[in-house]
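Handout, section B. The chain below has 224 residues.
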Amino acid sequence: MGHDKNEGINDDKKDDASESTEALSRDASESSFNMTETEEEDDEAHIELGPKISIREHLEKDKDDESLRRWKEQLLGGVDVNAVAEVEEPDVKILSLTIVSADRPDIVLEIPNSGLPKGHWFTLKEGSKYNLRFSFKVRNNIVCGLKYINTVWKTGLKVDSSKQMLGTFSPQAEPYIHVMTKETTPSGMFARGSYSAKTKFLDDDNKCYLELNYTFDIQKDWAK
């Protein structure tokens, strides 16, 4: 896992709930990774967490409990509660996605409003090491249990599925920046070609803030 900048407070409390990301890297002769039906159902399962409340209500609730009050103030950091609207739903906006590799300049990917990038969105070099870096802003309220889910198919068969818990984040003016675990693309004749993928950013109650459906290539070299 890369190191986060401005990482969300209380990430350490999410460590036990984190699931390790399965890398796309594997030998071409290895069988494709497939999730079981139970795992797929777990991803889609909806957990009832009770009604959402605004930040001001968060602070008023249990205000007589000193330890809880300090924890909430730590979570909110420098948020100006008086400047935050009385909104129950958090607003999370993914600002950018970037592929970072020592082999080449960063590949900055434009995020279309439709969530459907046109054509092949990017090309990866076979056998190359890279990280995915993204930035996002949180407004209005605390977002709990933000997670990243990515699924990849080749010729209609699922070859990779990964999920990573990012943490709990309070609203702030500056964007959060998160660097994903370093991955290595597969190599060899059978690894090259076109892939399709779906990427989603969800919170604890499965509210989706961004869903991207796209295609990409793995080739002998980076795209010129």
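Note. The domain at 11-51+90-219 is CATH 2.70.50.30 (Coagulation Factor XIII; Chain A, domain 1). Compare this with the example in section A.
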